[in-house]
UniProtKB/TrEMBL annotation:
Record's protein name: 5-formyltetrahydrofolate cyclo-ligase
Keywords tagged on the record: ATP-binding, Ligase, Magnesium, Metal-binding, Nucleotide-binding
Transmembrane annotation, as ranges: none
Family to which this protein belongs: Belongs to the 5-formyltetrahydrofolate cyclo-ligase family.
Entry keyword annotation includes Nuclease: no
Catalytic activity, EC: 6.3.3.2
A Pfam match: 5-FTHF_cyc-lig
Molecular function via GO: 5-formyltetrahydrofolate cyclo-ligase activity
Alphabetical list of InterPro entries matching this protein: FTHF_cligase, FTHF_cligase-like_sf, NagB/RpiA_transferase-like
Cofactor(s) of this protein: Mg(2+)
Organism: Defluviimonas salinarum
Reactions this protein catalyses: (6S)-5-formyl-5,6,7,8-tetrahydrofolate + ATP = (6R)-5,10-methenyltetrahydrofolate + ADP + phosphate
Length: 184
């Protein structure tokens, strides 16, 4: 083997070790989220399929006592819909590479676990820029009471997220370090 091949093999082994460590950590990262969700037992929950380095909410979703859905993007500028999910669901690639259930019933959530890039103590989040969660939360909140839970690593906290009038605040923020209800 030449040096290039040796390095390639070392990278593959390192990625595999990191993947195992990341997966093992997910249960620990989810402990606080699971505790928060016990207060919402029996309510319809929407989570998300983690991508890249997003904090993994799947263990908490799998443990939830109630219907669980994951987001499906139906088109640009539209609110999300949520398809029924379980750990056994057959998943296919959806928009932006996120996995979605191949089939299943639609779920209208009472509680949403919301992914984010950054958050602040006011309860605002910085998403990926499509406005999907803001439109979704606005529509759901116009019809009923909904709890939006931001789930992130503590390191994602910033002093102030830039906001605009359409941005929807979170009701709770859960990190591996704490749970707090933002002050507005």
């Amino acid at each position: 083997m030449n040096l290039t091949e040796i390095k390639a093999a070392a990278r593959a082994e390192a990625f595999a070790r990191r993947k195992v460590a990341f997966a093992a950590r997910a249960a620990e990262d989810c402990a606080r989220l699971k505790a928060v969700l016990t207060e919402h037992s029996g309510k319809a929950l929407a989570g998300y399929m983690p991508m890249r380095t997003e904090i993994d909410c799947l263990p908490a979703m799998a443990a939830h006592a109630g219907a669980v859905g994951v987001p499906v993007i139906l088109g640009a500028g539209t609110p999300l819909k949520f398809r029924s999910w379980s750990p056994e669901a057959t998943m296919v690639a959806g928009e932006f590479g996120a996995l979605i259930p191949e089939s299943g019933d639609w779920v209208e959530p009472d509680v949403l676990i919301v992914p984010l890039l950054a958050f602040d103590r006011r309860g605002y989040r910085l998403g990926y820029g499509g406005g999907f969660y803001d439109r979704t939360l606005e529509g759901l909140r116009a019809r009923k009471s909904v709890t939006a839970i931001g789930f992130a690593f503590a390191a994602q906290e910033v002093d102030e997220v830039p906001i605009e009038p359409t941005d929807q605040p979170l009701d709770l923020i859960v990190t591996e370090a704490e749970v707090f209800a933002p002050g507005r």
